[in-house]
């Protein structure tokens, strides 16, 4: 099983926007740091001088001898600093009063030397102009010789290490701003994206409502992002083509069914005039199936177009007509017919033509698949159901749901196309009821059409 979740456009946008903003802030801060460091190093800021350079070089050069005396070790950094600053000077004093001096202390800061014992930290500035460099600095420093106080001139050139060290505060600010921006973007962007894609959500909801049986449905382009609009238009164009194809298909089936009714009726009449015998029975059954098929096609179109009218329907009278119409066909196929109503009249609200078609399909189904022997029973119950039972092999329990699906057949024997029971179920759903199949008293198939009890059925006797 994959642990990767489906890719969400919303979260992709959120992550991309958040990443872009973080990257932008990083670029801005790095650019600022690099620019300031470049200008400082090459003398455009503070003349390239850092007042910490000399104290740091001197700190690293201070040593203490075996006799406890301080001395200056000629480190490479100190040698380089001496070559860069000809008038280099500094003064070192430890806690015991030992002193080390190099160079000539400027007269401007000479007065501070006598007060060095009471100075802890100081930047000695001659004037108070903006960005003015100090003449000297005083700092306590930790060295290998112990803690010492260093007074020196602020003349050393800034180093790359010092530039990097001075950027620590900038990096801290950058990290805080990036964290705040990332959190704010991560929290706010989903709402912004959701609002921006609101039109797309509406189009998705409209797509769920598309019904193949209802033409003319189109997706609204209102509020859809411009980038998604071509896709919505393409879907609408596809729906238009489907509507045209479905309308043409439906018109063809309706016209074909109408055109076939007359030839089939003529054929049935001529077959009825043939001498009695097994061949005549078979031919009449085939003609009846053709008649039923054309009727089913017309009924399907009528139901899809909702051309039905609900009235009070007498189930007893309707079932009696169907039994009388199909009895000759059943007798010729080797069956007995039994009609068992529970009253003289049982009324329900429905479309009489549709109910008659459903019952006719069930009786013809029993004739075709009942084993050509036994009794076909038609029952009408005061509880609001019709039932057609045969004494054939029945329907396997595993197939009792699928047989009501379109084009599903238990036996592929060339009889029918699997529309009859699908039409029956559609008719019953139209009436708020349902069709079901069970095992009959004689182990055959028993199909029941159950109508809703509201409005209540009324048995009259």
Automatic annotation (TrEMBL):
Pfam family name, one: HATPase_c
Cellular compartments per GO CC: plasma membrane
Keyword Transferase in record: yes
Membrane-protein topology: Multi-pass membrane protein
SMART domains found in the cross-reference section: HATPase_c (SM00387), HisKA (SM00388)
Sorted UniProt keywords: Kinase, Membrane, Phosphoprotein, Transferase, Transmembrane, Transmembrane helix, Two-component regulatory system
Localization per Swiss-Prot or TrEMBL: Membrane
Transmembrane segments: 21-42, 170-193
Reaction(s) this enzyme catalyzes, per UniProt: ATP + protein L-histidine = ADP + protein N-phospho-L-histidine
InterPro entries: HATPase_C_sf, HATPase_dom, His_kinase_dom, HisK_dim/P_dom, HisK_dim/P_sf, Sig_transdc_His_kin-like_C, TCS_sensor_his_kinase
Domain Histidine kinase: 255-455
GO molecular function: phosphorelay sensor kinase activity
Keyword Kinase recorded: yes
Listed EC numbers: 2.7.13.3
Top-level EC class: transferase
UniProt cross-references to PANTHER family, sorted A to Z: SENSOR HISTIDINE KINASE CUSS, SENSOR HISTIDINE KINASE YKOH
Name of this protein: histidine kinase
Lineage of the species this protein comes from: Bacteria, Pseudomonadati, Pseudomonadota, Alphaproteobacteria, Hyphomicrobiales
